[in-house]
Design a protein that fits this description.
Methylamine Dehydrogenase, Chain H; five-stranded mixed sheet; four-stranded antiparallel sheet; 20 strands; globular; repeat; WD repeat; WD repeat-containing protein 76; WD_repeat_DNA-damage-binding; WD40/YVTN_repeat-like_dom_sf
Length: about 240
């Protein structure tokens, strides 16, 4: 896997070096390792609470496991949510009692972790690959389809289909990430492309990107804006590393 770093501003070299040194000093204790699900982990999310550490993990079989690291008991709660790989799990930014998940079978579900109930909020024809929160409160999602489409999903409506559907100028799409400040902008990763789109310009025919970033030589697995400012984009690719 190759990581790419795209930014208009260069970071502070000394700060990056100090951070790297701190990472090298981290240790992993045996009691901090736990099998949360039976299948291989395909996604993970950490609850934003400042008083507890709650981890959600999705696996290749469509299960979601919850692990509360602060509890003395070693109980792991596992929920069979999807029929295929759980691609994305994410806690709602406005109410983290709710856990949202996306499965490859083409559904997005919202689970109330207090009652262990996961309701379907969106169903698509074909594979879904990713989603991000389009609105600050998390009520509106932007979901990506493998066949190069984006859908806007409003959790507040009873309609389980998309309100906006746009076809992108890419062979296929693996991930989508919404700019944290300019929320009309999103970056998508696909074949060897990293493209920035304006959600307001989505069209059912081919939608042109507003910006195209440096191309990888192999498929791009993901591309994400930096969470605070959005000035940087981190990409990952399966192209071989150069020694």
């Amino acid at each position: 896997m190759v990581l790419g770093y795209h930014s208009r501003k260069r970071g502070n070299p000394s700060a990056q070096s100090s951070y790297a040194n701190k990472l090298q000093k981290l240790t992993l204790k045996e009691k901090a390792v736990k099998r949360t699900i039976l299948g291989s982990v395909s996604s993970i999310a950490i609850h934003p609470s400042e008083t507890r550490t709650l981890v959600a993990a999705g696996d290749c079989n469509g299960n979601i496991g919850l692990w509360d690291l602060k509890r003395r008991s070693a109980d792991i709660y596992v929920f069979p949510v999807h029929s295929r790989r759980t691609r994305i799990v994410a806690f709602s930014p406005s109410d983290p009692q709710y856990l949202l998940s996306l499965g490859y079978e083409g559904t997005i579900r919202c689970g109330d972790i207090s009652y262990s109930v996961f309701d379907e909020i969106y169903h698509a024809e074909g594979y879904l690959t990713s989603f991000d929160f389009l609105s600050v409160d998390g009520s509106v999602l932007l979901a990506s389809h493998y066949d190069s489409k984006l859908s806007v999903v409003d959790r507040r409506t009873r309609n389980k289909t998309s309100n906006v559907h746009g076809c992108l100028d890419s062979k296929f799409v693996y991930s989508v990430s919404v700019h944290p400040l300019q929320r009309d902008l999103c970056v998508v990763a696909g074949s060897s492309d990293v493209l920035v789109y304006d959600v307001r310009q989505l069209r059912k025919d081919t939608t042109q990107p507003v910006m195209s970033l440096l191309r990888h030589t192999s498929g791009v697995a993901s591309a994400s804006f930096s969470p605070a400012t959005g000035n940087c984009i981190l990409t990952s690719s399966m192209e071989p590393c150069l020694q």
